[in-house]
Amino acid sequence: MRHPDTPARPLVLLNQLGQGQLPDMAGVQVIDDDQTPAWLRSQDAEVLLTGPRNGWKTAPQQTPEGWPGRLRWVHLASAGIDFFPPWLFDVAQVSCSRGVAADPIAEYVLSAMLEQVKQLHSRQVRHGRMIWSREFDRAVARPLGTLKGQTLGLLGYGAIGQAIARRALAFDMRILALRRSGQRIDAEGVTSVASLRELLANSDHLVLALPLTAETRHLIDAEALSHAKPGLHLINIARGALLDHDALRAALDSGALAAATLDVTEPEPPPQGHWLYQHPRVRLTPHISWSASDGPAATALKFQHNLVRYLKGDALIDRVDPSKGY
């Protein structure tokens, strides 16, 4: 909420998401500046709307002089907070855009699973009738796969995991899920499992949908992958550091894993010549699973809802707890 000593004047908002992303709001003065680092303007505004691409990759490691200035609330245009330096959270309140990208990420996951079972890229007809006939005969001898009856494992069951589950149920998949809290899941068609080992051992497709914390870093390592169901397809749409990439390579090379679809890596991007670019069992995309035409509008709407709460003095939704890492 606004500080009780704040005079009755327009709230000053520093918007770094780009001009035109926010509508005019009564009682709010918007400063559009997506070029100047936020820590150099912390004296100019009470509220900051910012995102990972607004210079935070090169932010100073130590707390800048004068931070947090006049800032009393920062809203992040991302769900994860690991892009930002620890000192950002010296601001009284920080909230995030948890759930905004859940739908496009869920569609990305479904498309990855469909590609894995259908393999349409290898069955395209490009060279005339002879190939057409060959591929038709091949479909009789080696039918296309189907998601129906396969088991989807969800490591993490927040907004993204739930959006994936809803879509997977429409494909008649069996769904297993494990929450980071260990709490059981009360959702129709979704079965809680007790351990990561159980999840790995029973999944045909496993989606990593956890935040990156000290506890989850390299959670999927060689020991974990040793329990994977033969033919497992691993999908990471969360953070690259959840996965030990050396262990991943060994599992792919041995055939213990059938494939990996990676939208995130460690580091990001991988250096030139990295094995991930060429491995035949890897589908690599450049951290784009969140992308959607309505993404900026959805982010702005989530912020506006929180802004109304802030102005009323109500508790913010999706407030970040730095001690938990999300």
Keywords for this entry:
Rossmann fold, alpha/beta, 7-stranded parallel beta sheet, 5-stranded parallel beta sheet, 326 residues, 7 helices, disordered N terminus, 12 strands
Read across the widest sheet, the strand sequence of neighbours is 8-7-6-9-10-11-12
Structural class: alpha/beta
What name does CATH use for the topology of the largest domain? Answer: Rossmann fold
CATH class of the largest domain: Alpha Beta
The H-level CATH homologous superfamily of the largest domain, spelled out, is: NAD(P)-binding Rossmann-like Domain
- The total tally of domains equals 2
Counting DSSP E segments of at least 2 residues, the number of strands comes to 12
CATH architectural arrangement of the largest domain: 3-Layer(aba) Sandwich
Indicate the mean pLDDT: 93
Name the overall outline.
elongated
- One letter per element, helices H and strands E, the order comes to EEEEEHHEHEEHEHEHEEH
GO molecular function: NAD binding; oxidoreductase activity
Organism: Malikia granosa
Protein name: Dihydrofolate reductase
Domain D-isomer specific 2-hydroxyacid dehydrogenase NAD-binding: 112-289
Description:
The chain has two domains: 11-100 and 293-312, NAD(P)-binding Rossmann-like Domain (Rossmann fold); 102-118 and 145-284, 3-Layer(aba) Sandwich (Rossmann fold). The two termini are 20 Å apart. The chain has helices spanning 102-118, 129-141, 159-170, 196-202, 222-225, 245-254, 295-312, and strands spanning 11-15, 28-32, 47-50, 73-76, 93-95, 151-155, 174-178, 190-192, 205-208, 232-236, 257-262, 282-284. The strands form two sheets. A seven-stranded parallel beta sheet has the order 8-7-6-9-10-11-12, sandwiched between helices. A five-stranded parallel beta sheet has the order 2-1-3-4-5, with no helix packed on it. The protein is elongated, with a radius of gyration of 23 Å. The chain has 326 residues and is α/β, with parallel strands linked by helices. It contains seven helices and twelve strands.
